[in-house]
Amino acid sequence: MCITATGVVVLNSLLGRCLDPENFKQFKLVKRIQLSHNVAKFTFALPTPTSVLGLPIGQHMSCRGKDSLGEEVIKAYTPTTLDSDLGHFELVIKMYPQGRMSHHFREMREGDYLAVKGPKVKIFDLSHPTYLSHCYFPQF
After folding, report:
1. 83-107 mean pLDDT
2. Across the chain, what does the average pLDDT equal?
3. Which of 57, 102, 135, 139 is deepest in the core (most CB within 10 A)?
4. pTM for the full model?
5. To the nearest 10°, the Cα dihedral for 32, 52, 20, 2?
6. Is 27:112 a contact under the CB 8 Å cutoff?
7. Domain residues of the chain, as ranges?
8. What gap in Å lies between CA 119 and CA 20, rounded to an integer?
9. Is 78 helix (H, G, I), strand (E, B) or coil?
């Protein structure tokens, strides 16, 4: 079984999934909860209340922002929500003092938008020997 990035785009649009592996899409920050002095939970709205993010379990997405110098930064994150959580996705982010993407998240306020694309893996081939060599098969 092999799914290419183009196949994911077509499949996602047919299934109502929001992510695109090749193009960044904008998602509105609807809630920000500070969990500790350097950790916050960010909730982003999907286009409709029944939309699905479309990120397979164990995969991550690329988030794009600006660092303190205004330079573009792209970093991979894994949401804490599943596709069964309709209409939104959440990221729990630890913000480091010198972190380039941390700066972007520190500055984000409700109503701001985050550019996201994914899943980050463009080709996922379950039958490929390289993939199989990295899998763990329990012995019973």
Report:
1. 96
2. 83
3. 102
4. 0.77
5. 130
6. no
7. 2-120
8. 7
9. coil
